[in-house]
Design brief:
Length: 233
Amino acid sequence: MTQDATLISDRGRSRQQLPEEVAAYVRELIISGRVCPGEYLRLDRIAEAVGVSNTPVREGLLALRSEGFVELVPRKGFVAAAFTEQDVRDLFWVQAQLASELAARAAVRITPEQLDQLEAVLVAEERAGLDESQRLVDLGHAFHRAINRAAGSRRLAFLLGAAARQLPPRFFLSMAGRVAGAREDHRGLVEALHRGDADRARELMHRHVLAGADELIEVLVTSGLWAEQESAS
């Protein structure tokens, strides 16, 4: 990509959006095993792949450094850090803590209108076919977003979103068949919210989110992620 073409590409997106796009792209490279731990990340190649200039690439990599996905080697550049099974479990543990608290708060303040919205999402989810991966993922996100909004705790919801963004969206697509199996959990959550049962809502949400760790680990093991890392070490 020429410099002029890169500048034109950059103009259509906000300055804040560009590093986020870079970070999302590199996270997926690391979690999918397309780059191995210790492998150097070429700024020019990432810039070309994402369609940005080198500046947002560096900003995106610095953000990933703070998340532990990359390391900065002085005078040499950025390298991919290892992404382990424990990392997956830790990410889901953080999400479970925040999501369960939000569910508990939602149980004591959710409005009839918000309950109707949740019911509508749940009905659509139950009617979706198991082969509609993207639709199942979108409905799952809509379900959790509705609960988070009902909790009335914007800061907690923001922190939960930041944790969830560390997992690339395509992995939720890989888990879509299993997401369909979570319909029972979602129905139980709606029932707890109808009753205003904060303890039950907290328990169900915590268990529901942690189950995602086992599901994603199964996907990553099947993909050969850690086998490739072990052979490269």
